[in-house]
Specification:
about 30% helix; alpha/beta
Length: about 140
């Protein structure tokens, strides 16, 4: 069954959420896992640029899903794209995707300014019986 992790950040700005996403993707890829990073189409290119530069001392190969079958541990996709990997989903999309049960693990990152949305998603997964884990990250950077 899919494990769902909620990461609660004290920050209120979207750039903090994207920086934490890069760290989380790096950790998963370093552990040998393939990552499907789902975000809004308007953020795909910016997030791709950030993956090359953050954290500064790291390097994270990635590709857009539309690039085809190029090998990379992280696949950037817009919210409408169907995944090609099934290990880790980092969901930055505006909803819970219908394909989430295909993944071994789902990560939801919630800023303090998004707590209500985070609670709705938590209830969604909980009501369907998925194992939930909560990570309150006061100092993550």
């Amino acid at each position: 069954m899919t494990r769902v992790d909620f990461y609660l950040l004290p920050d209120v700005h979207a750039d903090a959420k994207e920086r934490f996403t890069c760290r989380l993707a790096y950790r998963a890829a370093s552990a040998g896992q393939l990552v499907h990073l789902r975000c809004e189409e308007s953020r795909v290119d910016a997030l791709g640029e950030l993956l090359w530069a953050y954290p500064p001392e790291q390097f994270l190969p990635h590709r857009r899903l539309s690039d085809g079958d190029t090998k990379a541990p992280v696949v950037l996709a817009n919210a409408a794209d169907e995944p090609t990997v099934t290990e880790v989903l980092i969901n930055l999309g505006g909803d819970v995707p219908i394909f989430f049960p295909r993944f071994d693990r789902v990560s939801e990152i919630v800023l303090s300014s998004e707590r209500d949305t985070g609670r709705e998603r938590y209830r969604f997964y909980r009501d369907r019986g998925y194992p939930l884990f909560h990570h309150d990250l006061d100092e993550w950077e």
